[in-house]
Amino acid sequence: MFARSSIFGLFAASALSLQPYDVPSFRLAATGAVNLAVTSQEATYGLVPKEENQRRIIAISLGARRGNASLTLYTQGDELLRPGRYPVRSAWPKEPDSGRIFHACFIAGTPEHPVGGFHGESGWVTITRVDGRRMSGEFELSARGMLAADVNDENQWVTVRGSFVADGDSTLAEIQQLSVQ
């Protein structure tokens, strides 16, 4: 009986440990000017179309089309993302070789019923795993912005924490090609 319970426990633990990485998903919680928690399976990443004289950008998009909030994390797209911890900043560094940073844009509410919009000022993004078309990570950031109820007060703050497993979109091949060059 003990052996059967142990085997069942091992299978259950294995299934639970693999499941979050198998399905694109994210969870986030925001506190401060907006308090909410969101879980969704809408998590992708890819290369943003390049405009003339602009840097290539890789965007991790969490909840952009549906749900009660969305978070976009974006960084320079000159090479594939690698596991590591990267700072969130509000401006691109002036020095091109100053290391990878992320920008963040957090939108609370839906397009039909917006609650507020915030831009990341500080914090971090940790890429924990990149393999095949999947990437996983965690984030914690402080963001400043405005609430829809008072668009003249742009000094509202939120803290956003969470994790994600994102699927690479059709631009993933182009990102991989850039890394080889």
Give a nutshell description of this structure.
By secondary structure, the chain is α+β, with helices and mostly antiparallel strands.
Walkthrough of the structure:
This protein has 181 residues and is an alpha+beta fold. The chain has one domain. It is 17% helix and 49% strand. The protein is built from two helices and ten strands, in the order αββββββββββα. The chain has helices spanning 2-22, 172-180; strands at 25-32, 36-40, 43-48, 57-62, 69-76, 84-87, 103-109, 114-131, 134-147, 156-168. A seven-stranded mixed beta barrel has the order 3-4-5-7-8-9-10. The longest helix is centred in the first third of the chain and has 21 residues, at 2-22. The protein is globular. Residues 1-21 have low confidence and may be disordered.
